[in-house]
Design brief:
The complex is a heterodimer of chains A (about 80) and B (about 180). Chain A has about 80 residues and is mainly alpha-helical. In chain A, about 90% of the residues lie in helices and about 5% in strands. In chain A, α1 (about 1-45) runs antiparallel to α2. The longest helix of chain A is centred in the first third of the chain and has 44 residues, at about 1-45. The chains are: A mainly alpha (about 80), B alpha+beta (about 180).
Chain lengths: ~80, ~180
C-alpha cells in the first residue's frame, strides 16, 4: 500500500517535471527567436565584423533549443 | 583592428553606426572595460558546473531519476547558461559610447527588451566631469564620465570606460573648440 502510494507520487512528480521541462525549453525557444531579431537590430545600430558570427551563434542556439524542445515532448508523450 | 577592444581611437577602418552623417569623423568608440565582464563570466562557469554537481548529489543520495529526464535537465541548464552568457556578451558589446567630431552618442542596451539611443551636440554641453574610484578602477585605469547638457534630458553617463582622462580631455577640447567657432 505504502509502496503503491510512493510510486504514484513519484509518477506525479515526474509528470510535473516533464511539464515544467517542456515549458522551460519552450521559453528558451522564444528567447532564441528574440535573440535573432535582437542581433539583427543591433547590427543595424552598430555594424561590426563580429555580426556574422553572432548571427550564426544565435541560429545555432535556436536550432539547439528547438531540438531539445522536440526531444522533451517526445520523451513526455512516449 | 581588435573587434573586442573597449577603446578605439581614430579608427582607420569605416565603422557603421545608425544615423552616421556623411563626413562625420569617429574619434572614440568606447565600451565598458573588459574587466567588468568578470561577474557574468564567473556566473556562467557556475551555471555550467551546476549539472555536474547536482548529478553528483543525486548519485550519492541514491536518487535515480530516469536517464532521459537527467539528460533533458542537463540540456536545459546548458541552454540557460548559453543564453545568459550570450546575452551578457551582447550587453557588453553593444553598450557603446561614440565620440565624433560633431556629437556624442550613447547607445544603451540592457537585456532582451530595452534599448536606448541618445545623442547630444557639443554646443549643448555645459559641464563635464570624470571620476575613478575603488581599487579595480585605479588598477585597471577605467572610470566614469558625466556630461551635463543644457537640454532637459538626463546627463550623459559614460560608465566604466577605459582611460577616462584621455576621453575627458578630448571631449572638453571638442566643446571648447565648438564654443570658439561660435
Amino acid at each position: 500500500m505504502n509502496e503503491e502510494f510512493l510510486d504514484q507520487i513519484y509518477k506525479i512528480v515526474l509528470d510535473l517535471f516533464g511539464y515544467m521541462a517542456i515549458i522551460l525549453v519552450f521559453v528558451e525557444v522564444v528567447f532564441a527567436g528574440v535573440l535573432i531579431k535582437q542581433v539583427y537590430l543591433l547590427d543595424e545600430l552598430l555594424g561590426t565584423n563580429l555580426s556574422p558570427f553572432l548571427k550564426v551563434f544565435a541560429y545555432v542556439f535556436l536550432a539547439g533549443s528547438i531540438i531539445i524542445f522536440l526531444y522533451s515532448i517526445s520523451l513526455f508523450f512516449k | 583592428m581588435n573587434i573586442f577592444t573597449a577603446i578605439l581611437e581614430n579608427p582607420k577602418e569605416y565603422i557603421h553606426f545608425a544615423d552616421r552623417e556623411p563626413g562625420e569623423v569617429l574619434i572614440f568608440l568606447l565600451r565598458k572595460h573588459p574587466i567588468t565582464n568578470l561577474p557574468w563570466i564567473f556566473t556562467t562557469f557556475v551555471l555550467l558546473s551546476l549539472p555536474t554537481v547536482l548529478n553528483y548529489i543525486l548519485t550519492i543520495s541514491n536518487i535515480n531519476l530516469p536517464q532521459q529526464f537527467g539528460l533533458v535537465t542537463n540540456f536545459i541548464f546548458y541552454l540557460f547558461a548559453a543564453i545568459y552568457s550570450f546575452e551578457s556578451f551582447l550587453i557588453w558589446y553593444y553598450n557603446v559610447y561614440i565620440v565624433t567630431d560633431r556629437r556624442l552618442i550613447d547607445i544603451d542596451f540592457y537585456g532582451f527588451f530595452y534599448k536606448k539611443v541618445s545623442e547630444t551636440q557639443y554646443d549643448k554641453i555645459e559641464d563635464t566631469t570624470y571620476s575613478q574610484s575603488g581599487v579595480t578602477e585605479i588598477l585597471f585605469n577605467y572610470g566614469n564620465i558625466y556630461i551635463q547638457t543644457a537640454a532637459k534630458q538626463n546627463e550623459f553617463e559614460f560608465i566604466s570606460i577605459p582611460a577616462p582622462q584621455r576621453v575627458y580631455d578630448k571631449i572638453t577640447d571638442l566643446v571648447a573648440q565648438k564654443k570658439e567657432d561660435e
